[in-house]
Amino acid sequence: MGDQLAKVKTSVSELDLDAIAPSVQEALDAGEEPALILANMADGMAAVGELFEKGEYFLADLVLAGEGMKEGLEVLEPHLEAGDRGGKGTVVLCTVKGDIHDIGKNLVATMLSSAGYTVIDLGTDVSEDEIVGAVRANNAGAVGLSVLLTPMVDSISDVVRALESAGLRDKVKIAIGGACTTQELADRMGVDALGRDAVEAIRIFEGFFA
Ligand code: B12
């Protein structure tokens, strides 16, 4: 791995917040692939999550890490989106009702739009009605739901049911992802796919729109 990429990852994982956006810029200046830079940011954030679970980082650190990730993504996004943006299909993406985690969702959104999809990002804590409205308004072919909180998993079946009632379920494929999701949950909730990271997310949506 190049020094610049390692610096991107460690600036995130070591919570060196002022260094995240500059390290992304340095990696770009050094000619590193934007997608590889993004993957290193995601690796850094995954390390942050692990250190939080071990008790070495605290909630306040996580909020700050999220802000640092956003600043880094702002630097990176124009470079990722230089390709044929939006032409491959439309995806409605959000974090489900009751859940405000957005770092993983934002990474998935960035990867999807840089891969050529139009992403309608509804943000966090989004109701099934908003999702149905966005699918209809944008004629979307797929929905991506980010779910990190176990108490909120029923929000997934609420979305599935609302799409069924609106007569849209056979027009959209649904993928889920996030810390608390499993294949067993995906099967139980009646969704079409489970993605464990942003790279797998791309593979899934490629399949949906193939
Ligand atoms: C950062 C974080 C926070 C931050 C969120 C900041 C933000 N802007 O998002 C803050 C501090 C605000 C927070 C708050 C809370 N959190 Co929190 N948080 C985390 C933490 C440490 C990391 C999440 C993260 O960003 N990971 C890094 C990203 C890159 O990974 P990711 O989210 O998994 O996303 C990747 C994949 O999952 C996938 N993916 C994600 N979404 C999608 C969608 C699709 C369609 C696809 C295909 C793929 C995909 O691709 C992504 C990129 O590779 C997790 C621990 C963990 N292991 O996840 C806990 C965790 C999710 N939080 C937890 C909890 C309990 C909370 C709180 C209730 C408070 C608390 N007591 O800790 C509140 C919830 C408030 C609410 N209503 O939502 C628990 C949930 C437990 C559970 N199973 O229910 C966890 C698991 C920690 C724990 N072990 O206790 N949290």
Low-confidence stretches: none
* CATH structural class of the largest domain: Alpha Beta
Q: What helical percentage do the residues reach?
A: 55-70%
- The gyration radius over C-alpha positions equals 17 Å
CATH architecture of the largest domain: 3-Layer(aba) Sandwich
Q: Report the biggest beta sheet as strand number plus sense, adding barrel if it closes.
A: 5 strands, parallel
CATH H level of the largest domain: which superfamily? Answer: Cobalamin-binding domain
Proportion in β-strands: 5-15%
Question: What does this molecule look like?
Answer:
- By secondary structure, the protein is an alpha/beta fold.
- The mean pLDDT is 91.
- The radius of gyration is 17 Å and the shape is globular.
- Strands 2-1-3-4-5 form a 5-stranded parallel sheet, with helices on both faces.
- The relative contact order is 0.12.
- Helix content is 57%, strand content 11%.
- The chain has helices spanning 3-13, 17-29, 34-53, 59-80, 103-114, 128-138, 154-165, 183-189, 198-208, and strands at residues 90-95, 118-121, 142-146, 173-177, 193-195.
- It contains 9 helices and 5 strands.
- It has 2 domains: 3-80, Methyltransferase, Methionine Synthase (B12-binding Domains), Chain A, domain 1 (Orthogonal Bundle), CATH 1.10.1240; 90-208, Cobalamin-binding domain (Rossmann fold).
Reconstruct the topology from this structure:
Elements: H1 3-13, H2 17-29, H3 34-53, H4 59-80, E1 90-95, H5 103-114, E2 118-121, H6 128-138, E3 142-146, H7 154-165, E4 173-177, H8 183-189, E5 193-195, H9 198-208
Helix pairs in contact: 1-2, 1-3, 2-4, 3-4, 4-5, 5-9, 6-7
